[in-house]
Amino acid sequence: MKPDLLIARAGAMTDELALAPADSVRGLVPNRLKPVATAPTVCGYCSTGCSLDAHLGPDGSALNLSPSLNYPVNQGMACPKGWEALAPLDAPDRCTTPLLRQADGSFKPISWEEAIQVFVDRFRAIHTKHGGQALSFLSTGQIVTEEMALLGVLGKFGMGMVDVDSNTRQCMATAHVAYKQSFGYDAPPFTYSDFEESDVLIFVGANPAIAHPIMWQRVMQNRRKPKVVVVDPRKTETALSSDLHLAILPKSDLVLLYGLARRLIEKGALAREFVEAHTTGFDLFAHFVSDYKIHEVSTLTGVPMEAIEELVDLIASGKRVSFWWTMGVNQGHQSTRTAQALINLALMTGNIGRPGTGANSITGQCNAMGSRIYGNATSLVGGYDFGNAAHREHVARILGISTAAIPERPSRAYDEILDLIAAGEIKGLWVVATDPAHSWIDQERIGSLREHLDFLVVQDMYATTATARMADLILPAAGWGEKDGVFINSERRLGLTQKVRRAPGQALSDFAIFRLVGEAWGCGDWLRRWSSPQAAFRIMQELSRGRPSDISGIGSYQELARAGGIQWPWPEAMRGKEPESERRLFEDGRFFTPDGRARFLFDPPQPMPERPNCDYPYLLNTGRGSSAQWHTGSRTNKSEVLVKLAPRELFVEVNPRDASDLGLAQNDRVQIRSRRGRLVARVQITATIQHGQLFLPMHWKEVNQLTFPAFDPHSRQPSFKACAVAIDLLRD
Ligand code: SF4
Q1: Quick check: CB of 43 below 6 Å from ligand 1?
Q2: pLDDT on residue 28
Q3: Which of the 8 DSSP states describes residue 702?
Q4: Which of 292, 505, 537, 720 has the fewest CB atoms within 10 Å, i.e. the most exposed one?
Q5: CA of 42 to the centre of ligand 1 (A)
Q6: Tens digits of per-residue pLDDT, 597-650?
Q7: Which ligand 1 atom is nearest residue 49's CA?
Q8: Which atom of ligand 1 is found nearest the CA of 44?
Q9: Exposure class string for 345-383: b at 16+ Cβ within 10 A, else e
Q10: Is the pTM of this model over 0.70?
Q11: H-type helices in 131-212, by residue range?
């Protein structure tokens, strides 16, 4: 069994415990320090939202962790990242004091008073000269929702910023827009028990076996003998475990999904009553897909006709069919329409609102869903619309601010903010808990933008990230486990994450830092109500009242912890009642559009923006390397255990035929070149990658030197999955 697939279950038999990273298990109950209490806290890596029990020593500080046995999400399981979640807190490169860049380029430790004064003075000078639109922040899907909400309202309504964004743009912007357009609200319909209750699970551009290992365990717990289908250019770990793998050509998914729709219509595999009662636009959609003849679809996608027919039959005959997608769909040049093509399939076959069904986007980061509702970038804080005057007035009234402080349009997107920096229109940038100099597509551009900024502030746990190294001012932030708040997971579950360690040195929670900045900026009056994460949560509840994501019925943080998290909606009318542990949306067939009907949305497929040619003959795909690695590795690289479980060097997957043509042997050093940059990697020859394609894991900074900056026109999410490259053997 590959280490990636190892999942440890707390409290299980000894041989199962042996599957956990050895150092973690060894540390469960040290002899010297016996835990005296336990505090459940939701994991701060991925969107699965597992609960971990922090075992506390006499001083209230976590000694170690084990997965919570009775939490409905993970049921006593955790992946290696969860078991090792405390390790990054102890890293030697934690930033423990504010740091200000000096004239000679070095950083000097300064006090918080000086740091906040410098920050506010420099941002105020830009504001005075160029207006609030010359300031911006780039935030994250990794901080708690209360912090996201506070940063969003402070930045936009307090400091006058107009265009702000977060790294959620890189993972979930597509799902946000696709759901909003199709369902009338960003509303993932499913609950995790749908993994266990499906007859047919279709994963498109998703590799849960390593990217969401606990969700994959839920699939493994399905007792209905389900058929698992994977649509992915690579034979991923999930594809290896599937019943049917459709190895499509990269970015041909939209063609395939339209072809499936046509064949299902031809076979009469439609839920006509549902379509007529609960949707709009089906007739136009049916006419549109009638052009997608199966033999042409087969040619364009590289999938044999028999495999397409097999999938059509599975969907047509399945009583409970669920469609799941993640970054392979979300990160594409037509990602919104691709996500909606999956939504269309679920709608036309009536696979929504029932157990084991749904068009289900698996979220990336632990709190991307919190960012989508409360980040105040695309949607007005609370899931409202900036363009709606009544919404602006309502939000202003709840927040106790002037309606005029609320912009009348959503923020421009991440890539557009970078354009504004390059054009000299944004001059002050505040980067919070993210590392764009590693993670953003076409990375070279980020480095070149630095010279256009008058002042760059980075707020992070570490002063060693690529972006922090470019900063003028670094603010030391507490990490996961060092503060309280709420995450919202993939299935809309609000879960409590708790402070189980004290942050090192002078590091402060992001919430406390935002309050200091707000006070110094002059927003103290209206920020007084945002006195603590709990107080912020109450404001969020008030904002949510009457919205689809209503959480006004949640009594307290303690209730969240006691209940095993609570999925939205949980309105005031439910206050005090015992929530069911799993709830899904749309059981009544009513959607959040004005007419209550879901919409069929579609567009013709467009060619891939950068296709291989004779100079760059290979197509590069990027993605997660292993379940021990998280994004830029700023945290997972701090755990000795996780480092041992992950590849040591950057590797590139090469098909055996290509390796033979190029004269490459296993472990050879090669250079991979695109029009934008180059890197060196070790060759990994494997038939899991198709001929003519290469794969690089995204966790190495160099990888985004190669990627091509294409963006979906609706969500502005970058397409990390397809660009043209060349490969050359390097002689040692
Ligand atoms: Fe669960 Fe994700 Fe944390 Fe792993 S990283 S323990 S799957 S929440």
Answers
A1: yes
A2: 47
A3: G
A4: 505
A5: 9
A6: 999 999 999 999 999 999 999 999 999 999 999 999 999 999 999 999 999 999
A7: 8
A8: 3
A9: bbbbbbbbbbbbbbbbbbbbbbbbbbbbbbbbbbbbbbb
A10: yes
A11: 145-153, 168-171, 173-183, 193-197, 208-211
Tell me how far apart the alpha carbons of residues 218 and 222 are, in angstroms, rounded to a whole number.
7
State whether the beta carbon of 8 lies less than 6 angstroms from ligand 1: no
What single string gives the DSSP state of each residue in 559-617? HHHHHT-EESP--GGGTTS---S---S-TTS--SSTTS-EE---------SS---SSS-
Q: Best mutation site among 4, 6, 45, 645 for ligand 1, i.e. most ligand atoms within 8 A of its Cβ?
A: 45
Q: If pLDDT is split at 50, 70 and 90, which confidence band does 301 have?
A: very high
Q: How far is the CA of 203 from the centre of ligand 1 (A)?
A: 19
Q: How many other β-carbons are positioned within 10 Å of the β-carbon of residue 524?
A: 12
Give, rounded to a whole angstrom, the gap between the first and last alpha carbons of the chain: 33
Three-class secondary structure of residue 693 per DSSP: strand
CA of 212 to the centre of ligand 1 (A): 7
d(CA 52, ligand 1 centre) in Å? 9
H or E segment to which residue 476 belongs: strand 473-476
Q: Which residues contact 273 (CB under 8 A, 6 or more apart)?
A: 350
Residue range 346-388, pLDDT digits in tens: 999 999 999 999 999 999 899 999 999 999 999 999 999 999 9
Query: Which tokens belong to 641?
Result: 């255990």
pLDDT tens by residue, 207-258 = 999 999 999 999 999 999 999 999 999 999 999 999 999 999 999 999 999 9
Q: Please answer whether residues 699 and 649 qualify as being in contact, where contact means their C-beta atoms are separated by less than 8 angstroms.
A: no
Mutational test site, ligand 1, from 6, 43, 365, 631, max ligand atoms within 8 Å of CB? 43
Give the separation between CA 619 and CA 641, rounded to whole angstroms: 33
Predicted confidence (pLDDT) per residue in 339-355, tens digit: 999 999 999 999 999 99
What CA–CA distances, in Å, run from 591 to 189, 279, 619, 718? 10, 9, 39, 28
The answer, yes or no, to whether any atom of ligand 1 lies below 6 A from the CB of 48, is yes
pLDDT at residue 574, as a whole number: 96
- If you take atom 2 of ligand 1, which residue's CA is the nearest one? 46
Q: Count CB neighbours of 732 within 10 A.
A: 4
pLDDT at 62 over 50: yes
Please give the sequence-ordered ranges of beta strands (E in DSSP) within 30-146, or none if there are none.
Answer: 37-42, 51-56, 62-67, 77-78, 99-101, 107-109, 135-139
Output the CA torsion sign for 241, 246, 250, 251.
negative
CB 125 within 8 A of CB 132: no
Helix, strand and coil percent figures for the chain, each rounded to 5: 35, 20, 45
Measuring CA to CA, which residue among 656, 722, 714 is closest to residue 685? 656
Q: Relative to the CA of 214, which ligand 1 atom is closest?
A: 7
Using 50, 70 and 90 to split pLDDT, how confident is the model at 732? Answer: low
Q: Which two tokens stand for residue 722?
A: 């397809």
Rounded (10°) angle between helices 533-544 and 389-399: 150
The answer for residues whose C-beta is within 8 angstroms of residue 590's C-beta and 6 or more apart is: 278, 596
Is the Cβ atom of 46 under 6 angstroms away from ligand 1? yes
pLDDT on residue 26: 36
Give the number of other CB atoms < 10 A from CB of residue 178. Answer: 29
Crossing angle of the two packed helices 510-521 and 145-153, in degrees rounded to 10:
20
Quote the ligand 1 centre to 214 CA distance (angstroms). 7
- Ligand 1 neighbour 177 (Cβ under 6 A): no
